Amino acid sequence: MPLLIRPLPWIAVLVVFSLSACSGSDEPRSQPEPSAPGATPTASAPSTAPAATPSVSTTVEAPKPLSVPAYRALLGRVDAAIRPAARQVHVAGTMPALSAGQQALVRAMRKQADGLEAARPPAQVAAQHSALTRSLRSAADRIEGYRGISACGGAPALSDVIERDLLAKNSVAASAAALRSKGIQVGTFLPAAPTTGKRRGENGEVVERRGSRGYTRLEVDNTLNNQDVAVSVVTGAPTKPQAMMYVRAGSRATYQGTRGTYNVYFKSGHDWDDQRHQFTKDCTFEKFDDPFTAGYHWTISLVARVGGNASTTKVDPF
Length: 318
Hints:
Layout: H1 2-5, H2 8-20, H3 68-91, H4 95-118, H5 126-144, H6 154-167, H7 172-180, E1 206-209, E2 216-222, E3 228-234, E4 243-247, E5 251-258, E6 263-273, E7 278-288, E8 298-301, E9 312-314
Helix pairs in contact: 3-4, 4-5, 5-7
């Protein structure tokens, strides 16, 4: 009997061993660490890889440059859109008419610049196309700001200033010429080049004279003035003087040939328009209040002085 009882513990050990071997792993099982007092247990959900989302890529092709014929047609429409407003400025005879033409021209040039900016020109004229777009915008900005000089000779003088801007170096005319050199016509809305004229008169030059000459003289002292002046001897309307004489700043001059009793009008400024006998910038228009009696030689000074004996009044442009 004792011999049968002793092997039982060995059998028990074998059973335990065989059970531990059934885990399928030689690694020891991890045991959960005891939670700290008051800690809330957490559970981690098994991570699941997100399902792949199919992606679709699209390629937008850049618009192709315009063909040369299509580009010529585009610039033809630009000319046609601006031409009526440019003509309106050219023929304006009054300030309201000029103001309306000025605003129409600004709008037309800006709108056409927007259209040109959105277009893709032929590669060989890309630089000239960009220059035309920029010059239309900058000219529109300048023309919009020219209202401040409207008193300089009225509508005809301001119209001339606007047209000279369009024709100036590095302005719209220059950009149009660059395209024409590439065989692309544009710029038919531009005014004709003005007749070349002096932008400053000669001292003592008689720029206008009407009727017979008299025997008395008028001496003009402009030595203390920093602007050129045009002095008119007037017996009727100031727009139709007996004579108009140009006197430069810092100078004096004499007109020989006044007749009868007359009034003296004078205008000053910068940038003399020799065709219209007008200053185009910084203009003033005045007249001596008292008439000048016939049969006397007179000397006038065109600078205000304390104790002076001749008053003047500002007048409308003439």
